[in-house]
Structure formats: C-alpha cells, structure tokens
User: Fold this.
Amino acid sequence: MTSTQLAPTQKPSRSGHRPLRVAIVDEELPYPPTSGKRIRSLNLTMRLARRHELTYICHRNADPEEARRAADFFEGCGIQTVVVDRAIPAKSGPGFYARLAANLLSPLPYSVASHTSRELRAALQQHAATHAVDLWHCEWTPYAESLRSVSGRRVVVAHNVESVIWKRYYETEAATLRRWYVGHQWRKFEQFERRALAEADCTIAVSDIDAERFRREFGVARVDVVENGVDTAYFRPGAGRRTPGRLLFLGSLDWRPNLDGVSRLLDDIFPAVSAAEPHASLDIVGRNPPTWLRRRVAESPGVALHSDVPDVRPFLANCELMLVPLRIGGGSRLKILEALAAGVPVVSTRVGAEGLHLEPGRDLSVSQDTDDLAPAVIAALRSPERSTRQAASGRERVLARYDWDSLANEMERVWLDCVRGLST
Assistant:
C-alpha cells in the first residue's frame, strides 16, 4: 500500500458547514479521465476537494506509469490517497475464465468478488482506526461489499442499475451456455444490489429513471440524483469545417455494452449506411480495444480505429455525426453530453439516450433499437440542416443543466444531508 499524506487545511464550505472528512472508496484513481466513469468521478472529486478534506482509498491502477501519474495528480489537487498495491484481475486469458468458473460457487457476482480484496478491507479498517471520518463515499456499487468492514454513515454511488445491465446482457445473448451464465450473474446482482443499497444511508443515482427503479424494484428508502455532466468550457464547438459523411463512435472499448454496440455497428449499421451513402466513413475512438476489434476494423473498408487518444475533441470537431448504437447499458451517457456541448449532432438508440433530459427530435435523433439506427443515420446525413438545429438545441440544454460545477453543489448537498441524518 502506498499513501500520500497532506497537511490538513481550512477549506471554505459553500453551505457554512465545516469541511467534511470524506473517505472515497473506488476501484482505482480515476486519472487520466479516459472513460465515462473516470470523467464523472474525477470532475466531481476535484471540485469537492476545494471545500472538503477528501481521502481516496482504492486499488492500484493496472498500468504502473499511469498509477504514478494519477497519484501525483491527486496530490496536486490536495486529495490524500491510500492506494492498495493490488490491481484488479485482468478480464482476459485462461486465469479470467478460471475465475469465472470459480465464481459459480460464490454468492457474490463476479464484478463484486473480483473487486473485493483482503488488502482493501485492511486499508479501510486501518483508515477508520486512525482517522475521523464523517462520511464513507462508495464510488461504485460493487465496492459496497468492502465497506461492510467499517462502520459509519455511507453513501453508495450507482453509476448504473447493475442488474438491469445484466438483464439486458441476458436478453441479447444468443449462445446457450453464455446466456445461462449471464442469467446466473443477473440474479446474483439483483440480490447484491438489494442488500448493498439497503445497508447504505443514501443511494446516489445518476438519472431519475435509475432512481425510480431503485425505489420501485428494490425498495430503497433514500435515493438522491446527481446526474452526469460535462465540462462546458472544455467541450465547445470547433472553428473548422466538419468532414461530410464522417461518423464517430466514442467510448471505452473494454466495456461490454460498448463492444456489443461496436459489433452491431460493424456488422450491420455502417455497411447499410455506406451502401446508401458511399462517401460515409467511420472513426472508432476509445481506450483498450481488444485484439479481435483491431482485426475487424482492419478488414472493414472506410473504418478507422483510434485507441487511447489523449484528446477526443479533434474527432468531435471533425465528424458530421456521433453514433450511440447501444442496446445494453444503464445510467446515462457522458459522451452524448460531450458531443452536444461540442455542437455535434447525435444519433442514438433509446437505450443509448436513456436517463438524459433531452427531447428526441429536438435535441438529438433517437431510434428504438439498433435495427432502426441505419435509416436514422442516413436521414441525418441527408438532412444536415435539421441535424445542425438539433445539435444547437441540445447544446443549449446541456449548458443549462449538465455543468459539473452545479452537479458538485448537488453532491455536496447530499453529503451534508447524509451526515446530518436528513432524509428526502
């Protein structure tokens, strides 16, 4: 375990309350911000660190150089770190499949069991014994299991309703054996979420839809909503000319819902679009693409893969449309907010746009599922004036509702209410 200790400082509180001492528990340090979860976690944490005394307790980032840069960045933001020297097991290779098989004997879903470690529990217990903690903040639902080792008020951030994602995996999986295994995980996640959220003082959902699911299906008594956001100063419309017909897929390429969407894009959607619009091209941008995807792209005319790029804004500035071909997922899509903040028209499935306060037809184009996405893309390419109007309307909505500063204020309110024992 490594630890970065910083001298305590007096920080102003927006509400007049003394600065809270908050321990944030997560899988890794969310830096650099290369995925939707990291972007959210980092933006809210940086802003709240200006007002409160934060300690980030997590496993080590898998890449050693990234781990070092992340620790330096957090220290520069005035955030204490306690990093357990144990990386999350890889999701590939013989060992991965052996762990999946072994998980059949565990009451915990694989995503929970693989993120739970004796080392992390020991770090939490040590911190609880040596530091006053006003609030434990679980930054991802699976880490609620590790937090059972300490006492005190706690909030759990549910970036998704995990069991809904697994249910959608189950509904879209064609292979019999995989479908059986996914169904097993779905049922375990339902049981885990029900228990973990019942034990929390407050659940924080990222959308009204997810909050209602937690109340209705899990009987969660206290649910607050802190939506996903966007840095509206960082993502702005570009000054250059967009390339006609250039389509963009943007998202982490080590997350199964995105890979499922990319597969549909390469198998069906883009071939149909390029048959109707021969000038169309497709950029796939994201981190950690698997080997099979690199091969598929190399065999696909008009398609280019850009992995682990330092800045996605040039791709947003150059494309004519961003596509969100998701049929599996939960929470809400930060990439839609980023695209609209940058003035990029968006064509999405219903699942892709779920959870966002955007109006289909006014702010973006939405199809029911991936089967209907290609005609929607073709229509958008053939009606550039309409697409531009939608992007302008969507940008206005994003600027009004989804700025990180106001969302950090909302997170702070939830923290203060939880510490005071207030309920909604």
Remarks:
- The longest helix spans residues 176-199.
- The chain has two domains: 2-229+404-420, 246-401.
- The first strand starts at residue 2 and ends at 4.
